[in-house]
Write a structure and sequence with these properties.
about 350 residues; mainly beta
Length: about 350
């Protein structure tokens, strides 16, 4: 067994809401730094890292006991990623032209110089870090073992969110100002394709089988579905001002939040049909449990979280959160299991994270 919690970053009240997945109660409100806007959880579920945009630090939360350690990073931090082994946390500092690398074991911080860093992503094998450089229109590939830059690849203008296919073959970068996506071959370090999408793409996610990538286009009110194999695209008009996306673990559905419609579009990946599900005001982030049973949606302007039953499309409960929740994550805390041989085995995982960036 394990304890699961939904965690939100609330950017106006400067705190994190901790919600029990078991009973859907708000169990704690945890003070963090100023203007928190991104959150990620370690794979063992023990710690949540909240990026505080205005206080130039990261709040490390002990999920089990709500303890908080504030760790100084660079100026105007905006996004976060954690290595699969849970040893390191990377934070982009848009105002100081650096990425901070935090060692989880002792909170030691080193900095990597990268101009205008924005969203970042780590390969599934934990070997490489990809960082979008918004001002330089480049993507940096960093060796995680050495912190050295391996390659700098030119992409489109205004590079933002990055998705890496679960098979580790490709990195997809959304270019907000050139309305396209750059497909990078991770093995060869080459740009394999530049794929036109909709107007002002802001979010991206890959299906678990690495066959499709979904791109959220905020200004054209649609989603672009990219076929990884042949780069073909399908456009799906999901709703007004779509902003974030998450995909169920079985790869059957993609959930897209629509800020202006106050709903979520549940897209059936097999045929691109979708169902609209009403939630709170201005939904901006979504996270899905690892068993695929529930989707939790952060509603920025109503200050709450909607719990959607994936099977029935019903909103089962609306849970109060802080003022303007803009990022959400779901974690499990490790629990020892006693086997018949009295050997202790620890099982834990992060269920799903949805991290929002500085366009909100």
């Amino acid at each position: 067994m394990s304890d699961s919690y939904v965690l939100t970053a609330n950017r106006i009240s400067d705190d994190t809401s901790k919600i029990s997945v078991e009973n859907d109660n708000l169990v704690a409100t945890i003070p963090v730094g100023e203007f928190p806007q991104a959150i990620a959880v370690t794979p063992n579920g023990n710690f949540a890292y909240v990026v505080n945009n205005s206080s130039n630090d990261v709040s490390k939360i002990g999920v089990s006991n709500n303890s908080v350690t504030n760790i100084g990073v660079g100026n105007v931090p905006n996004s976060v990623a954690i290595t699969p082994d849970g040893q390191f946390v990377y934070v982009s500092n848009g105002g100081s032209g650096s990425v901070s690398k935090i060692r989880v074991s002792d909170n030691f911080v080193t900095n990597i110089v990268i101009p205008s860093p924005s969203p970042l992503a780590i390969t599934p094998d934990g070997q490489f870090l990809y960082v979008a450089s918004f001002g330089a229109t480049d993507v940096f590939k960093i060796d995680i073992n050495t912190d050295m830059t391996i390659s700098i690849l030119p992409v489109g203008t205004g590079p933002g969110a990055i998705a890496i296919t679960p098979d580790g073959q490709f990195a997809y970068v959304v270019n907000r100002n050139s309305d396209n996506v750059t497909k990078i071959n991770i093995l060869t370090n080459n740009v394999d394709a530049t794929i036109p999408v909709g107007d002002f793409p802001v979010a991206i996610a890959a299906t678990p089988d690495s066959q499709f990538v979904y791109v959220v286009n905020q200004n054209s009110d649609d989603v672009t579905k990219i076929n990884v194999g042949d780069n073909s695209t399908t456009f799906i008009n999901t709703g007004n001002t779509p902003f974030s996306v998450a995909i169920t673990p079985n790869g059957e559905f993609a959930y897209v939040t629509n800020i202006s419609d106050d709903n979520v579009a549940k897209i059936k990946i097999s045929d691109d049909t979708f169902t609209s599900i009403g939630v709170g005001d201005s939904p901006v982030a979504v996270a899905i449990t690892s068993d695929g049973q529930f989707a939790y949606v952060a509603n920025r302007d109503s200050g709450n979280v909607s719990k959607i039953n994936v099977a029935t499309d019903n909103v089962e409960v609306t849970i109060p959160a802080g003022d303007q929740p803009v990022a959400i994550a779901i974690s499990k805390i490790a629990q020892p299991i006693i086997t018949p041989l009295n050997l202790k085995v620890t099982i834990a995982n992060i269920e799903m994270t949805a991290v929002t960036y500085d366009q909100i």
